[in-house]
Amino acid sequence: MKIETDKPLTYPFALAPLPFAYDALEPYIDAATMRIHHDKHHQAYITSLNAAIKPHPELHDFSIEELLLERHSELPITIRQTVHDQGGGHLHHQLFWKILKPGTAGTRPTGALAQAIDRDFGSFDAFKAKFVETGAKHFASGWVFLVVNPADGGLEVLSRPDHDSALLEKNTALLINDLWEHAYYLKYQSGRVNYLKAFCSVVNWEYVGQRLESVLDSRVRPGPATKKISHSVR
Hints:
With about 230 residues, the protein is mostly helical. The protein folds into 2 domains: about 30-100, Helix Hairpins (Orthogonal Bundle), CATH 1.10.287.990; about 110-215, Iron/manganese superoxide dismutase, C-terminal domain (minor pseudopilin epsh fold, 3-Layer(bab) Sandwich), CATH 3.55.40.20. It contains 8 helices and 3 strands. It has a 3-stranded antiparallel sheet with strand order 2-1-3. The protein is globular, with a radius of gyration of 17 Å. Mean pLDDT is about 90; it is low at about 1-5 and about 220-234.
């Protein structure tokens, strides 16, 4: 099944509405957190990204994926770090909202995704334990990912700091979770482990499975590879 066939969005980037109500993920993620996370934090990334790109019309026709993957090294040095950070935040959150879905508590992966998880982690429960452990051990802010290597279909769980992308080399993200405190602190405070466990009850496994099938069918392009860049000026 092909996914994400819409034309890539370009400058000025805009905040898409949530695909569900703010309180739809209760009791796992509270309405207040969802409202602040989506309306304030994600919007702030977009606002800063647009402000950085505005004086550079030569960049206005590129999607955020193109800016971070294909044009990253060509960006003006004065805005490169801003596009990396704010653009990375925008890119990750766009996928994050699609991963979430109400009414999925107790559901499990099926099909190719279930088979891949069993093959590479031993079981779905072992995968969840690995995902929670990786997110819990991650220091400070960042993201935890389930990625697939399109070359061999292998799955891996890993984390990256800040808004650095885990989509290095040819890996593609199937599942991501936000480890920044604004994603969970109102409800879980310092209990990141509880938040990570609750997250597993609001995952749209059907969508995650579609992403894997599309990757294996070579219909989702890898990337973006947004490694942490130097602040030095050339």
